[in-house]
Design brief:
By secondary structure, this protein is α+β, with helices and mostly antiparallel strands. The chain has one domain: GIY-YIG endonuclease (3-Layer(aba) Sandwich), CATH 3.40.1440. 27% of the residues lie in helices and 35% in strands. β3 (26-34) and β4 (37-46) form a beta hairpin. The longest helix has 15 residues, at 78-92. The chain is globular and about 35 Å long. The N and C termini lie far apart (35 Å).
């Protein structure tokens, strides 16, 4: 069973990067533990976790910063994914989300 983590009252499931991903959409966070606290390095959204993570262009950069896990939350609609993604980016200001700053 995977652990659960709350980001701004949104419940995310904690995954290893090599997890078997489902073909569903949602929001994800590349993060690592810094001083026993999750630190987000990149926040994104997708309409299909399986195809998005097969060769994500930001994972290597996130891993170099200390990302060890992916937190993911299934969200069925694109509008809802946009809202949650923007809310999280605005609050946490991850270093690799430069296009949203």
């Amino acid at each position: 069973m995977n652990d659960k983590v709350n980001w701004l009252n949104h419940e995310f499931t904690v995954f290893n990067p090599d997890a078997a991903w489902n073909e569903v959409g949602g929001v994800y966070i590349f993060c690592g533990s810094v001083k026993n606290q999750w630190q987000p390095f990149y926040i994104g959204k997708t309409d299909n976790f399986r195809t998005r993570f097969s060769s994500h262009e930001v994972w290597d950069k996130a891993a170099k910063l200390g990302a060890t896990h992916i937190h993911a939350m299934t969200i069925p609609t694109d509008a809802a994914r946009d809202k949650v993604e923007q809310e999280l980016i605005k609050t946490w200001k991850p270093p690799l989300n430069i296009q949203h700053v």
